[in-house]
Write a structure and sequence with these properties.
Chain lengths: 264, 553
């Protein structure tokens, strides 16, 4: 069994990976019931251990805001039914545990190891069914980039900008730049709709559509696919305008000063 | 080699004294040249023109080269644009993209967008040419802007050059028009969003708005005709008008001759510098290639307008962070700064003040810029011809007005990137917008006061230096125990630069032939007094003599 995030390897034992996947499958419920039923009693025990560990971690780190049983408090929402996907997204991108109260929980270096994230996810997923960790096959980047690009323009560009450079929302909130986001987190963001982002469920965008969007984002992330050397941050005409005034006109004015100084 | 052309009121022909006029017996090549020149002249009488034009004198100051930068970037635009017309298809017919950019393959799009993609990915040198064209366009408008600022702040628009200022302004507007139509041609999502804004603005006009929009887009937005129409404007009509206006601009520049900064040997009746032929022409040719080179270097390394990342235009998706090219930014910013709710219902019609107000502000601003020379001329009542460029400090009120205008423009411009300011400095967009709204009103006032103060301060300093010399930072103790700082006197050369400037008097109120003072005259005199109050007059000779003999302290 492969770990669910292909570009971080070597730190997790195959057993844990297997369990992680199981947890995800458990959480998505329904269609995966067949698999979970055939799982051996031994792994179930491991899952229980994982959930226990997750519960401990949760009570130590998250309960102050989300309540001891994740039922929610004034400082944080109820987490019943948000699923393993929400926890993996929020904790593995460092958004949770939330630091200072700001307009929006911001990304920061993650505070937990992957095992701990898996445990937290398992715990929250065990409370109520919710979206699970996406299947590896959806994160390969081999989808249909044309379809992905089209879907991205229609569904995401109004907040994240067509080139994925990010954009401002109201009251200091913002849709982040999508460069370098892990495929799994892109998927999870779509299914859980963190904060001001809408949820894109499987009726809105099928898992294949999501895989296509991920493929497109991976395509534009790869610098070798974009012609040109310097792209000015993909910010469009504003950075181009600043560039022309500061560097182009600046250097030319420098040249004129030099030319007229020489001839005297 | 520096040459001086004299201008006298009676005979404005350039009289030139070159240092290296020698008599050399003509060689073989020379004889042919002479024959050819003669041949052409006998048939065209060009020699008169060449004499007049070729002996035009260019003063040597860096700020006088900004107009040239604009001219050369325009030539680069013409050359690269010609290349682009070979491959661009100005049509909104649907085609299926089969080119080499993967994320768009198999997608239906307009022929315009598909051909722009082909230029970018599948035509040799196409992307470079596209980027040269676009960068040159940005540089073109930017250098026009800087050139206008130079002319404004040195008072080079004063009589007899008011009309040429106006023509220059027309060139500026045409350049913006060229830029905007060009920006819309690729029919990508970004430019389509821009057109959508224009559509909204047009529709905001009472009564005629909807009809005008229908006319522009050939029916309901986006229609299928706008790219073709903009293309005709972009490559035919606007460039033709632009070249014509440019021609007049340059001819008037020759007729009026250049201004120059004060200096020894420079007067209001001459121009000191190099003549077009041969020195300036050679330098200019070299300078053209420098500009071309800088543009090519930038275009080869820095991506501009990556339309492939934006996708084909489709009215449903709207992207965050949609901005126009920089020179349209001020208009976009003005729209963004309108407070919410400026839309009223009047007798069943919607009055869109949220569009009309910013449009009005922009139009008034542009009209003031266009007619500033006439306005200032009226206020000062100055009928003299001016051929000396002023130092900005010597016209404090104008400099202050200019600073206020620049600030006003810059604030609107910044407003166009309010969302990027918000995300990049981690601010709330509402806060940014409110701050910019405030700045739009306070900024120009602050700039005005500050610039005026600074000018007066600098003028006072100049006066001090002329009268008492530089402070040499050498402290000397006199036998009596007193300490003094030694002042270094100025050289004649330096002094000339500081004292040679025009002095103005406010207009006097005089009753007209019916013995009355009309209201308009009062307003004018009031404005004139305001314009010239706090004047620092140039140092006079008597003052200078007095300072010389008055001992050194």
């Amino acid at each position: 069994m492969a770990p669910h995030r292909k570009n971080r390897t070597g730190r997790r034992s195959p057993v844990v990976s297997a369990m992680l996947l199981l947890v995800g499958l458990l959480a998505t419920g329904g269609s995966y019931a067949l698999f979970t039923a055939s799982a051996s009693a031994e792994t179930t025990a491991h899952v229980d251990n994982l959930i226990d560990e997750g519960q401990k971690l949760f009570q130590a780190n998250c309960a102050s805001c989300h309540g001891l049983a994740a039922q929610g408090t004034d400082a944080g929402p109820n987490l019943h039914g948000v699923g393993a996907a929400a926890v993996d997204f929020q904790v593995a991108t460092g958004r949770m545990p939330m630091a200072a109260s700001g307009p929006q929980a911001e990304e920061k270096p993650p505070q937990f190891t992957e095992e701990q994230v898996a445990a937290l996810a398992a715990y929250v997923a065990s409370l109520a069914p919710g979206p699970g960790i996406p299947d590896e096959s959806l994160l390969t980047g081999n989808g249909d980039v044309t379809n992905g690009a089209e879907l991205f323009r229609i569904n995401c560009a109004m907040c994240h900008n067509v080139a994925g450079a990010g954009g401002a929302l109201t009251e200091g909130k913002f849709a982040p730049d999508l460069k370098g986001v892990e495929p799994a987190h892109i998927y999870e963001a779509m299914v859980t709709g963190p904060q001001n982002m809408p949820v894109f469920n499987d009726l809105n965008l099928t898992p294949e559509d999501k895989a296509d969007i991920i493929s497109y984002l991976m395509f534009i992330d790869d610098k070798s696919n974009s012609p040109g050397i310097i792209d000015l941050g993909g910010l469009g005409p504003v950075s181009e305008g600043l560039f022309v005034w500061i560097f182009a006109l600046g250097s030319i004015v420098g040249i004129t000063v030099w030319l007229t100084a020489k001839s005297n | 080699m520096t040459v001086e052309a004299t201008r006298t009121a009676a005979d404005r022909d350039a009289r030139i004294t070159t240092e290296d006029e020698q008599a050399v017996p003509p060689g073989r090549g020379m004889r042919f040249t002479n024959w050819a020149a003669n041949y052409v002249d006998e048939r065209t009488s060009m020699s008169g023109f060449v004499r007049e034009f070729g002996r035009k004198i260019f003063p040597n100051h860096w700020s006088f080269m900004l107009g040239e930068v604009a001219l050369y970037s325009f030539i680069v635009i013409l050359l690269s644009g010609t290349f682009l017309t070979f491959f661009f298809q100005a049509s909104m017919t649907e085609v299926t993209y089969e080119g080499s950019y993967a994320p768009l393959k198999g997608l239906d799009m307009s022929a315009a967008y598909a051909s722009t993609l082909d230029i970018s990915f599948d035509i040799r040198g196409g992307l470079l040419m596209r980027q040269i064209h676009h960068w040159a366009a940005l540089l073109f408008v930017a250098s026009i802007g800087l050139h206008m600022l130079r002319v404004f702040f040195t008072g080079a628009f004063r009589k007899p050059r008011e009309i040429n200022w106006l023509i220059g302004f027309v060139l500026f507007v045409l350049a913006m028009g060229e830029g905007f139509t060009g920006y819309s041609l690729p029919d990508d999502l970004l430019s389509g969003n821009g057109l959508r804004i224009i559509d909204g603005m047009v529709k905001g006009f009472p009564i005629v708005g909807t009809w005008m929009s229908n006319l522009l887009f050939g029916g309901e937005f986006p229609g299928t005709s706008v790219v073709g129409m903009f293309y005709s404007l972009h490559i035919l009509l606007l460039p033709a008008v632009l070249v014509a206006a440019l021609g007049i601009h340059l001819v008037l520049m020759v007729v009026n001759k250049h201004t120059q900064f004060a200096g020894p040997g420079r007067t209001n009746d001459n121009v000191v510098g190099v003549p077009i032929l041969p020195v300036f022409a050679a330098k200019a040719g070299g300078f053209f290639f420098i500009i071309f080179g800088v543009l090519a270097l930038i275009a080869a390394t820095v991506t501009i307008n990556p339309i492939w990342a934006y996708g084909p235009y489709d009215p449903s998706p709207v992207s965050a962070g949609t901005q126009p090219d920089w020179y349209i930014g001020f208009a976009d910013g003005a729209l963004r700064l309108v407070p919410p709710g400026w839309e009223f219902e009047l007798f069943g019609f919607t009055l869109s003040l949220n569009i009309l107000a910013p449009v009005l502000v922009i139009v008034v601003f542009l009209v003031l810029v266009a007619f500033y020379p006439f306005i200032e001329g009226w206020i000062t009542g100055d009928q003299r011809e001016h051929h000396m460029a002023q130092r900005p400090r010597n016209a404090p009120r104008r400099t202050a007005i200019g600073a206020a205008g620049v600030t006003f423009y810059a604030v609107m411009w910044a407003a166009a990137s309010s969302d990027l300011i918000a995300t990049h400095f981690k601010l709330a967009i509402e806060g940014v917008t409110h701050a910019i709204q405030l700045l739009l009103i306070l900024g120009p006032i602050i700039a005005f006061v500050l610039a005026h103060r600074i000018c007066i301060g600098l003028q006072k300093k100049d006066r001090e230096i002329v009268l008492h010399g530089y402070e040499s930072a050498r402290i000397v103790r006199l036998p009596g125990g007193e300490y003094i700082e030694v002042h270094e006197p100025l050289s004649e050369y330096e002094r000339w630069k500081l004292i040679d400037f025009d002095d103005y008097q406010p207009l006097m109120l005089r009753p007209n032939d019916r013995g009355r003072i009309p209201v308009m005259q009062r307003v004018r005199a009031g404005l004139s007094r305001w314009f010239f109050e706090d004047r620092i007059s140039p140092v006079t000779n008597t003052e200078l003599e007095a300072a010389k003999h008055g001992g050194h302290h």
